[in-house]
Design goal:
The structure holds 2 protein chains of 2 kinds. Chain A is built from 11 helices and 2 strands, in the order ααααββααααααα. Chain A is mainly α. Chain A has a single domain, classed as ABC transporter involved in vitamin B12 uptake, BtuC. Chain A has a two-stranded antiparallel ribbon with strand order 1-2. In chain A, a hairpin with a 2-residue loop joins β1 and β2. The longest helix of chain A has 30 residues. Chain A is globular and about 60 Å long. The N and C termini of chain A lie far apart (38 Å). Chain B is an alpha/beta fold. In chain B, the strands form 2 sheets. Chain B has a 6-stranded mixed beta sheet with strand order 6-7-8-3-9-10, with helices on both faces. A 4-stranded antiparallel beta sheet of chain B has the order 2-1-4-5, covered by helices on one side. In chain B, α3 runs parallel beside α6. The model of chain B has no long low-confidence stretch (mean pLDDT 93). The chains are: A mainly alpha, B alpha/beta. Chain A: GO terms for molecular function: transmembrane transporter activity. Chain A: This is Branched-chain amino acid ABC transporter permease. Chain A: It is found in: Cell membrane. Chain A: It is a multi-pass membrane protein.
């Protein structure tokens, strides 16, 4: 029972990691950009959300409903102002640009919010749980998992069934050829990053509710997103979801073995996947 | 009469290397114009420059007399240009139908009778059977048909075709060339880059021969002699031998 409980808690934790990983998988899949600011954007959105809750008295769901469009606008701006200038066949310029931006963002957040840790009040939902037989499941993690599943399914359907999704996939396969049939790559890229950072609005709200955030937390969140995406296979949407689950379960089981071993267990599984199957578990070809 | 498309002293290249040294070319509505020339003569570069894939000055390319040079490719599509690129450049991981739909969903406003998926399937019936097949699983000829179909669904007034016969079996080449009159029937102009000089001459109204980035010959395809073509193709010194 101990272990089944570990797996259930791991799946729930994976729901949060999936919300981190989706946007990263999307940006890598379409533009071959590894966005180093990914974790910092989660923290930035979370801090904006906490301030909104404090200043304007917004409840957690109103914060969520505000952070998603703010995230989308930030993503659109990030792509238009910076990433469209550095995107290309060479992954290095975008890596350097987002690395630099990551440091600047962390320091800017430190100036605005100071180094204090903060969290978002959920109005009691953090403590609520329901029992599934002998296992207790937190209501908040369950909501997170359901949101993650819906977001993943929705993004996958968008990619496969809509005009926008087709233009994204076309640009991802051959951006010059996509431009030759009338797709404006800059618009497609800006929309992709807007979606990626918009999804982080969910991640930011839930992260701030279940735990605390501080301006320097970004790199940790980045690592979890990155590991989930690598485990699942770079650029695959459901792969990122599955990778997040594997990471969450590894950490939860690691915690059961020894409280200090949890995070390390996740890293070890990530390294094992890199060594044995570097293209990721769900990627068909290398 | 203002030609549909014209280039004026078109200069283009890649970085420091200049590949075109002042090309003057005109294309009229409904006309098929062939571009011939040896490898490296600048034929593909010319098509890429017209399509907006290489930087050029605005005045160097005119559509309906209006300067359009240097606009981004997706804006050239809006103006009524489309290209069947060298090497086909299909969207891998997507089905035949999805490849075609990306084009039809971003097309220019059609001038005459619009191209539809249905019309493309009628032109190349094999594509209807393969509609749900990922493009990477098609034969070379079928891929070329998808690439042409994709170009047509952009609703072009001018379709630029870069070596559509390259690497295909003679039977498939005949099949593809047999479809061309259907394309020009409602006024779409064709610019064909073609390695096979005889084929280029038969399929076109006029032809231009390029040598080292310059036009060395142009005229009505049916009236140009083989000797004139080989002189223009290889350069005057070779023709004297």
């Amino acid at each position: 029972m101990h272990w089944i409980d570990g797996i259930v808690q791991g799946v729930l934790l994976g729901g949060l990691y999936a919300q981190y990983a989706l946007g990263m998988a999307l940006m890598f899949g379409v533009m071959k950009i590894v966005n180093v600011t990914h974790g910092d954007l989660v923290v930035l959105l979370a801090l904006i959300g906490i301030s909104l809750a404090n200043v304007a008295g917004l409840g957690p769901w109103a914060v969520l409903a505000t952070l998603v469009p703010i995230g989308a606008a930030l993503g659109w701006l990030l792509q238009r102002a910076l990433l469209n200038r550095v995107v290309g066949n060479d992954p290095l310029p975008s890596l350097i640009a987002t690395f630099g931006l990551s440091i600047a963002l962390q320091n800017a957040m430190l100036v605005i919010w100071s180094a204090d840790t903060r969290s978002l009040s959920g109005g009691g939902i953090q403590q609520a749980s329901i029992s599934l037989g002998p296992i207790f499941v937190g209501v908040l993690p369950l909501i997170v998992l359901i949101c993650a599943t819906l977001l993943t399914g929705g993004l996958d359907l968008t990619m496969r069934r809509t005009r926008f999704g087709r233009s994204l996939r076309a640009a991802s396969a051959d951006v010059e050829a996509a431009a030759m049939v009338g797709v404006n790559p800059r618009n497609v890229y800006a929309a992709a990053t807007a979606i990626a950072v918009g999804i982080l609005g969910f991640a930011a709200t839930f992260q701030a509710m279940r735990s605390t955030v501080a301006p320097a937390d970004g790199p940790f969140q980045l690592i979890f997103a990155f590991e989930a995406v690598i485990i699942g296979g770079l650029g695959s949407i459901w792969g990122a979801f599955a990778g997040a689950m594997i990471l969450g379960i590894s950490q939860a089981i690691g915690f059961r073995i020894s409280p200090g071993f949890g995070i390390l267990a996740g890293h070890l599984v990530f390294l094992a996947v890199l060594a044995i199957r570097p293209q990721g578990i769900f990627q068909r070809r290398a | 009469m203002t030609p549909l498309l014209s280039t004026h002293g078109l200069i283009a290249g890649y970085g420091d290397m200049r590949a075109l040294h002042g090309i003057d070319l005109t294309v009229n509505s409904g006309e098929t114009v062939a571009l011939i020339g040896a490898n490296g003569a600048g034929k593909s570069t010319l098509l890429r420059a017209i399509m907006g894939l290489l930087p050029v000055a605005p005045e160097m390319i005119r559509l309906d007399g209006q300067p359009v040079g240097g606009r981004a490719p997706h804006r050239m599509v809006r103006e009524g240009l489309a290209i069947v690129p060298e090497g086909r450049r299909l969207f891998t991981g997507m089905s035949v139908e999805e490849n075609l739909r990306v084009a039809s969903e971003h097309a220019a406003k059609p001038v005459a009778e619009p191209w539809t998926l249905e019309r493309v399937f009628a032109l190349f019936p094999i594509l209807r059977e393969k509609a749900r097949t990922p493009v990477e699983n098609l034969s070379g000829g079928q891929q070329q048909m998808v690439s042409i179909g994709r170009g047509l669904l952009a609703q072009p007034r001018i379709l630029l075709c870069d070596e559509i016969s390259l690497g295909l079996a003679p039977k498939v080449v005949r099949e593809i060339y047999a479809a061309l009159p259907e394309i020009t029937a409602n006024g779409t102009a064709l610019v064909l880059v073609e390695q096979d000089v005889g084929l280029a001459q038969r399929a076109s109204h006029r032809l231009y021969c390029l040598l080292e980035g310059r036009v060395t010959l142009h005229g009505t395809s049916g009236e140009i002699s083989r000797d004139a073509i080989s002189a223009a193709y290889f350069g005057a010194s070779h023709a004297l031998d």
